[in-house]
């Protein structure tokens, strides 16, 4: 389990722009939002990523970069980026599932074709949304067992405004006896 204020696992992946995303080398002022999504087969992910695409500039104004990540390969990732008409959102691909597990993501098995007629991979990770500080510590995290009911990016932007204005620390850091 990831612990707020503690270092996260590193994350290094190829991106659709031909570069590599390396979380440890991110240089944003306030951190990075990492949106782990299920893959091209998930219509809910497409809608969710459309919302993130609309908010990339809002996060950037606050000194935060964004990336969408899945275990899909380059072709399926490019198809998702095309599907949501991404212009600002970075996409990382080929997420190893053992790395997904290090981030606390749940892993699902294929159930065949989805409602939109796209085959699910044999194994894939369920959604997760994280904000990681420039020091690569966990500030915010949400993981899910299902594709439904995800955090809203508009609320995360609002929470970020509050956190910046009030120097609000990451919460949930206590690991002692209860």
Can you put this structure into words, describing what you see?
- The chain is of the alpha/beta class.
- The chain has a domain at 36-144: Glutaredoxin.
- Helix content is 28%, strand content 21%.
- It contains four helices and nine strands, in the order βββαβαβαββββα.
- A five-stranded mixed beta sheet has the order 5-4-3-8-9.
- The longest helix has 19 residues, at 43-61.
- It starts with 11 loop residues before the first strand and ends in a 12-residue tail after the last helix.
Topology record:
Layout: E1 12-14, E2 20-22, E3 31-36, H1 43-61, E4 64-69, H2 74-83, E5 90-92, H3 97-102, E6 107-109, E7 123-125, E8 128-132, E9 138-143, H4 153-166
Parallel strand pairs: 3-4, 4-5
Antiparallel strand pairs: 1-2, 3-8, 6-7, 8-9
Q: Identify the CATH architecture of the domain at 36-144.
A: 3-Layer(aba) Sandwich
Seen as an oligomer or otherwise, the chain set is single chain
Helix/strand order:
EEEHEHEHEEEEH
Termini distance?
Answer: 17 Å
Strand order of the largest sheet: 5-4-3-8-9
**What profile does the largest beta sheet have?**
5 strands, mixed
DSSP strand count = 9
Task: State the helicity in percent bands.
Answer: 25-40%
Mean pLDDT: 97
Short description:
This protein is of the alpha/beta class and 178 residues long. Helices cover 28% and strands 21% of the residues.
Key descriptive features of the protein:
178 residues; alpha/beta; Glutaredoxin; five-stranded mixed β-sheet; 4 helices; 28% helix
């Amino acid at each position: 389990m990831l612990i707020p204020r503690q270092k996260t696992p590193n994350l290094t992946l190829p991106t659709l722009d031909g570069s590599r995303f390396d979380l440890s080398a991110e240089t944003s002022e306030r951190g990075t939002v990492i949106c782990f999504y299920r893959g091209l087969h998930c219509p809910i992910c497409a809608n969710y990523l459309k919302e993130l695409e609309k908010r990339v500039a809002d996060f950037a104004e606050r000194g935060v970069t964004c990336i969408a990540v899945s275990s899909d390969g380059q072709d399926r990732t490019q198809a998702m980026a095309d599907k949501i008409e991404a212009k600002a959102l970075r996409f990382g691909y080929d997420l190893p599932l053992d790395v997904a597990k290090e981030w606390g993501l749940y892993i699902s098995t294929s159930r065949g074709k989805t409602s939109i007629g796209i085959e699910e991979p044999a194994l894939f990770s369920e959604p997760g949304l994280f904000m990681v500080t420039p020091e690569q510590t966990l500030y915010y995290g949400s993981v899910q067992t299902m594709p439904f009911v995800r955090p809203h990016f508009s609320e995360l932007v609002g929470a970020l405004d509050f956190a910046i204005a009030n120097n609000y620390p990451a919460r949930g850091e206590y690991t002692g006896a209860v």
